[in-house]
Amino acid sequence: MIVLTTERLELRQYTLHDAPFVLELLNTPDWMANIGDRGIRTIEDAENYIEEKYLTQYAELGFGSYVSLLKGTDTIVGTCGLYKRPDLDHCDIGFALLPKYEKKGYAYESANALMHYARTELGMDTIYGITLPTNTASRNLLKKLGLNEIDTVKIEGDDAELLLYSS
What we know:
Layout: E1 2-5, E2 9-13, H1 19-25, H2 29-34, H3 43-61, E3 65-70, E4 76-83, E5 92-97, H4 106-120, E6 128-131, H5 136-144, E7 148-153, E8 162-166
Parallel strand pairs: 5-6
Antiparallel strand pairs: 1-2, 2-3, 3-4, 4-5, 6-8, 7-8
Helix pairs in contact: 1-3
């Protein structure tokens, strides 16, 4: 189901058919370095991840993480989503691209549209962003989206101290 359309992209809900993409994305060097190893090594692992992380959140909250595709095609460039974490008072926005689609403005385009959707359709006044201090690309994108660094935070299941941004 397509949730958002931008000039160049469509954002749609994940399905189990997206397992090959999830397997590829979660094992890219940038994902491993900046988000962490999620232990996804097989298509079955990826299907379970989609079920537990994405489909469950759609059912519980009505929103979540979305596949970003080139408009009018089946070409997946990345992911962009809103995440409700137990450790945070507000949802945070997250994004990641396959390496060959980086530096083309797709992350900003999808995240900017999702921020607008979150405010106008979901009624979210405050949206967080979290990232490692060393992830310069994410830090720059969060700033470009209008989020400001406000604190540091640790998320359940992750030992790293993350920078917390807020709209």
